[in-house]
Amino acid sequence: LFKTLHQELPYHLTVETENWEPFENGSIKIDQTIFIAREAHKKIILGKGGAMIKKIGQMSREELEDILETQVHLKLFIKVQENWFDDEDRYEMWGLNSKA
Questions:
Q1: What is the pTM of this model?
Q2: N or C: which end of the chain has fewer CB within 10 A?
Q3: If you write DSSP's letter for every residue of 12-70 in order, what string do you get?
Q4: Residue among 98, 90, 96 nearest 33 (CA)
């Protein structure tokens, strides 16, 4: 997201891995959700005709394949959730203190 959106990158944005499923052939299926705070940000991430999310997905998959040294099946979802950044449980899950 940082590498493709640059100045259009929404400030309230996070990505969470929802599912990580290894297969017998060594490949991995990864489902990730991009959480944003405003509906307007969804259009930025999707891009015209879905071109931006496709580019983001392709670049992310290639980078993951380089790191993991295996084929990756990456599924990206975008979810609008106002005030996700105020969710104390989310920070705990990341090992962070929301009050710091």
A1: 0.79
A2: C
A3: SEEEEEEEEEE-TTS-EEEEEEEEES-HHHHHHHH-GGGHHHHHHHHHHHHHHHHHHTS
A4: 90
